[in-house]
Amino acid sequence: MKELGPRILLTTDAVGGVWVFATTLAAGLAARGSRVILVVQGPAPRAEQFVSARAMPGVETVVTDFALEWMDPEGKDFARAAAGLTALARRYRPDIIHLNSYREAAADWPAPVVVTAHSCVRSWWRACRGEEPAEPRWAPYLVNVETGLAMADCWTAPTQWFRDEIQALYAPPSPGRVVRNGIDIDLQLAPKDAFILAAGRLWDEAKNIGALATVAAGLPWPVLVAGPECLGTNEIAAASSLKMLGTLARPDLLALMRRAGVFVVPALYEPFGLAALEAAAAGCALVLADIPSLRELWMGAAVFFDPRDPTDLARALNSVCDDPALRRRLQRAAMHRTRRYRAAAMVERFAELYRTLLTRQTRIRWPLLLAGTRS
After folding, report:
1. Per the CB 3.0–4.6 Å rule, which of 62, 66, 95, 305 could disulfide with 312?
2. Is the dihedral of CA 16, 19, 25, 27 positive or negative?
3. Residues 6 or more apart whose Cβ sits within 8 Å of residue 296
4. 24-67: per-residue pLDDT in tens?
5. Which domain holds residue 223?
């Protein structure tokens, strides 16, 4: 098939929501005539992730073992990763480099670079622990995020709140653009079962799944939790009446969302929250932590609670479980709100951004060294 759009080198990881974002964007760009080289960094994709990525027409998937920056805060793997990624750029000759990380923007790229900010350790630390990361090993990471943002030709964030947070924390020289995440949505409200669903990495304190453990026994409906487990998960489940499902393939999780009456997000930190969007599209009533990003996206279409107050969490869940009329209103409101967050709109925004960058002159580089890369 003849290429009608720019050739895109798009990085991703397979750990969380970045995978859904990147594969959705890749498929949408390819459908518009772009060739997309999807480069996976960090832990290898699960089998079903790899198979689904390989099945996308117009998308070539390249799996690497280059460390994710938050898993390599000292930057020990940056030189190798930069060399490997730029070698891929020389091989595929992309028109646009779209990175879903920060520090790689400081590599010597031959084309304009877009960085999408999905999260960062500094904002995570402030939201979860109310302080700056003090451990010395995070100092190079913070420098590298700032440098990557400064070197990017353009950067985006999925919410206004997170755009403003990144701007305040790292003061990049160019203002970021807000491009909402989007998914392919098939709005069909199926019959619902009486259970509460949550999804998230149990080892990530930002997801605050442990808050559900303190209230589950007193709720009228069972609470099911999907996501990667951690040491002590079985003990938590036994002590709290939570039913741990472990890691589910995305189709299985979406099928479970179509059955769930309520979806709860107790997060302390969530720059966007793709799981909430997927649950809303599946017709769940949303019960969400009262944090700025979720307020921005779902105000008027969800019940909110203080994620640090178990009593308030229990109140919110009880109110929705016990009131069928409220639950139906919330389900309809959430489904209606998802129309704002469609994949087609996200793809069009990025395609427009790429066109703008390609009309500019070749990017001007200036010498900046990332922390941890000096010999």
Report:
1. 305
2. negative
3. 159, 160, 161
4. 999 999 999 999 999 999 999 999 999 999 999 999 999 999 99
5. 193-340
Q: What is the CA radius of gyration of the chain?
A: 21
pLDDT digits (tens, 9 = 90+) for 244-274: 999 998 899 999 999 999 999 999 999 999 9
Domain co-membership, 164 together with 293: no
Residue 208: which CATH number? 3.40.50.2000
Residues 6+ apart with CB under 8 A from 138: 73, 121
First to last CA, the chain: 46
* 5 phi/psi in degrees, rounded to 5: -115, 180
H or E element that contains 41: strand 36-41
Q: Which amino acid is at 309?
A: D
Is 3 among the domain residues? no
* Average pLDDT for the chain: 92
162 with 214, same domain: the answer is no
Looking at the structure, tell me whether residues 159 and 63 fall in a common domain: yes
Q: What is the pLDDT of residue 369?
A: 47
In the three-class reduction of DSSP (H, G, I as helix; E, B as strand; rest coil), residue 262 is classed as: strand
d(CA 186, CA 177): 27
Q: How many domains does the chain have?
A: 2
Contact status, residue 301 vs residue 337, Cβ threshold 8 Å = yes
Total-model pTM = 0.92
CB atoms within 10 A of CB 2: 4
Q: Which residue has the tokens 């107050």?
A: 309
Angle between the N-to-C axes of helices 274-281 and 250-259, in degrees from 0 to 180, rounded to the nearest 10: 50
* Residue at 162: amino acid letter: F
Evaluate whether residue 109 is within a structural domain. yes
> How would you label 270-295 residue by residue, b for 16+ Cβ within 10 Å and e otherwise?
bbbbbbbbbbbbbbbbbbbbbbbbbb
Other C-beta atoms within 10 Å of 224: how many? 17
Q: Please give the Cα distance from 87 to 124 (Å, whole number).
A: 32
Cβ burial, residue 328 (10 Å; 0-12/13-18/19+): middle
Please provide the DSSP assignment of 154-206 as one string.
EEEESSHHHHHHHHHHH--SS--EE----B---------EEEEEEES-TT-GG
